[in-house]
Amino acid sequence: MAKMTLETLRKLREEQKEVIERRDSGEKSIHIIVGMGTCGIAAGAKEALNVFLGEAYTRKMDNVVVKQTGCMGLCYAEPTVEVKMEGMPDTLYGNVDAAVARKIVNLHLLGGKLVNDHVFDYPARDINKE
Q: Which domains does the chain have, with CATH numbers?
């Protein structure tokens, strides 16, 4: 392994700083939460996560935070993604591949419309306490 210079370390720190900032919730108004339990990962959640991160970065959507969580309880509908956005109901999407993730960005986040063919009910919402 080659020796790392101080300049290489500084560059690496700056690159990673951008990645961390994209995941910092701070005062952001849109939260995208990707289910990354083993069932989600096996179904392709990592690809959906990368699309959301990439779209938020390339479109300079500074009000968006992308986070990971464990299983959301809908293993049959993995990959699952929850979107929390001001002015819209909290929405749980299922079967989210890369194409659906882009559709969610374009229609839901930018257009204010649900992607109806991928909306799922929250599991046991009636017994969950806020």
A: 28-120 (3.40.30.10)
Taking the CA of residue 95 as centre, how many other CA atoms within 13 Å lie in the half-sphere pointing to its CB? Answer: 9
**Would you say the C-alpha torsion 76, 81, 84, 89 has a positive or negative sign?**
negative
CB 59 within 8 A of CB 95: no
Q: Against a cut of 0.85, is the pTM above it? A: no
Q: In what order do the strands lie in the sheet with 64-69?
A: 64-69, 30-35, 81-85, 91-93, 119-120
Preceding omega of 79 cis (within 30 degrees of 0): yes
Q: Nearest to residue 7, comparing CAs of 15, 39, 110, 34?
A: 15
Tokens of 61: 């959507």
pLDDT tens digit sequence for 66-107: 999 998 889 999 999 999 999 999 999 999 999 999 999 999
What angle, rounded to 10 degrees, do the helices at 6-22 and 45-58 form? 100
Task: Name the β-bridge partners of 66.
Answer: 32
Cβ–Cβ under 8 Å, residues 23 and 66 = yes
